[in-house]
């Protein structure tokens, strides 16, 4: 590339940058010097996350910015002042932007109210305008006397303030946690756990537990093999044979019981006869004893026979 082309390229780039910068400046100057419509509201809830410069939106569209926030001496509530850009409101059929009076009349005609809304969990807060809202304002109209040229927009009760306050309190609690100390204690716990795991006795115990688990696994495999279908069939056959044996044994016990009754009857007869024979034998022995006693007393009786003793008449 020759020197002439370099100069042309440099001039083109310089001209483009100048025009772009001038466009941005023109747009910025237009926004800066654009007339604003001044309004204010009073919030009786926490304005956590709301600050000067926070946006004012209508159905999510930015229409202005908060310019000032003060605490009211009268009741301690928060007075929030904001400006609305008339260029954000279109009125006439020709599409021209509204002026200050048009914005004020639109707010009154639509009975607009505002409330505190959250721009996400960590995105702060902003004011949201709501049209045709029949909700009761947080403060009565008579309780607010705005400055001349400032329109009062009633504020609706909002639950977002408590939510933002709770989130802020939670973040404050988190900020008070000593994460360095917590990480140090966690590292110490991990080191103690590692030391405990690397101990020899623990390794030995774990090895034993591993061996026990392996043995249990082998035992389970053997039991599974023992409970195979073939072995179950064999066991079923053995149980069938055992059932037959029990049936035969039951029959034999019944027959033995019948025979035992018959034998017990014969044994009773034999016992009776035996008792009679023993009684006779006992009587015989008694007689033999008496005879022996008589012979011992009078041996002559063996020749002449036994003599009865004489009877006495009692004289």
Can you summarize this structure?
Among the domains are: 33-168, no CATH class; 190-224; 228-276. Helices cover 56% and strands 14% of the residues. It is built from 7 helices and 7 strands; from the N terminus they run H-E-E-E-E-H-E-E-E-H-H-H-H-H.
Strands side by side in the biggest sheet:
5-6-2-3-4-1-7
Nearest-angstrom radius of gyration?
62 Å
Mean pLDDT: 76
Query: What structural class results from the helix and strand content?
Result: alpha/beta
Low-confidence stretches: none
Structural description of this entry:
- The protein has 315 residues and is α/β, with parallel strands linked by helices.
- Among the domains are: 33-168, no CATH class; 190-224; 228-276.
- It has helices spanning 3-32, 100-109, 160-175, 179-197, 200-226, 229-297, 301-304; strands at residues 37-43, 55-58, 61-71, 78-84, 113-118, 125-130, 151-152.
- The chain is elongated, with a radius of gyration of 62 Å.
- The termini are far apart.
- The mean pLDDT is 76.
């Amino acid at each position: 590339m020759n020197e002439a082309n370099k100069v042309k390229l440099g001039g083109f780039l310089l001209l483009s940058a100048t025009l772009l910068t001038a466009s941005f400046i023109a747009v910025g100057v237009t926004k800066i010097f654009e007339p604003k419509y001044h309004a204010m509201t009073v919030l009786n809830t926490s304005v956590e996350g709301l600050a000067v410069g926070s946006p004012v939106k209508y159905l999510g569209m930015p229409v202005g910015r908060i310019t000032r926030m003060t605490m009211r001496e009268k009741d301690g509530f928060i007075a929030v002042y904001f400006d609305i850009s008339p260029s954000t409101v279109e009125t006439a059929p020709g599409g021209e932007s509204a002026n200050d009076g048009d914005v004020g009349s639109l707010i009154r005609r639509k009975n607009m109210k505002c409330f505190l809304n959250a721009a996400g969990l960590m995105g702060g807060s902003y004011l949201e305008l709501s049209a045709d809202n029949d909700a009761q304002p947080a403060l009565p109209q008579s309780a607010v006397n705005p400055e001349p040229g400032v329109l009062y927009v009633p504020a609706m009760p909002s639950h977002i303030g408590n939510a933002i306050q709770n989130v802020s309190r939670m973040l404050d609690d988190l900020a008070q946690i000593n994460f360095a100390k917590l990480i140090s204690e966690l590292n110490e716990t991990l080191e103690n756990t590692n030391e405990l795991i690397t101990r020899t006795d623990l390794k030995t115990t774990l090895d034993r537990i591993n061996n026990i688990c392996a043995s249990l696994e082998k035992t389970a495999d053997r039991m599974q093999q023992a409970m195979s279908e073939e072995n179950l069939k064999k066991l079923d056959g053995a149980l069938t044979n055992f059932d037959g044996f029990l049936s035969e044994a039951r029959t034999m016990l019944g027959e033995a019981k019948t025979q035992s009754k018959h034998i017990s009857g014969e044994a009773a007869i034999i016992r009776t006869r035996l008792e009679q024979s023993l009684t006779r034998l006992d009587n015989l022995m008694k007689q033999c004893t008496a005879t022996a006693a008589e012979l011992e007393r009078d041996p002559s009786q063996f020749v002449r026979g036994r003599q009865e003793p004489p009877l006495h008449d009692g004289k």
